[in-house]
């Protein structure tokens, strides 16, 4: 014997379905972001440039008209030297995508990659002596 089924006396009213826009998404839903492989460009088998998080990227050229929006944003950001980590944070893109963009821009000679400035642990003795002699002459 099967147990009795409960039935509602007053069925619930169903809310009307959300209107569908031209793109197929309901109103109120955000646009889907671009896929990362689209932003990074076609993988042609080329190698990435040897870039790490602290490599400084700088450019002095304006973005060319054929540049993608991400490349244009990167070129505008890098008028003053920025590390790859900063670029990744400002553009809200993963490090791997940013390195692919920078590799393309390096190949087109639109940006330059510089090693970070490493300060010496011990200052140069001759420089300290020159400063000391200059202060003694005052």
UniProtKB/TrEMBL annotation:
InterPro entries noted in UniProt: DUF742
A Pfam match: DUF742
Start and end residues of each stretch annotated as Disordered: 1-32
Compositionally skewed regions (Basic residues) per UniProt: 1-11
Top-level taxon: Bacteria
Listed PANTHER family: DUF742 DOMAIN-CONTAINING PROTEIN
Name used for this protein in its record: DUF742 domain-containing protein
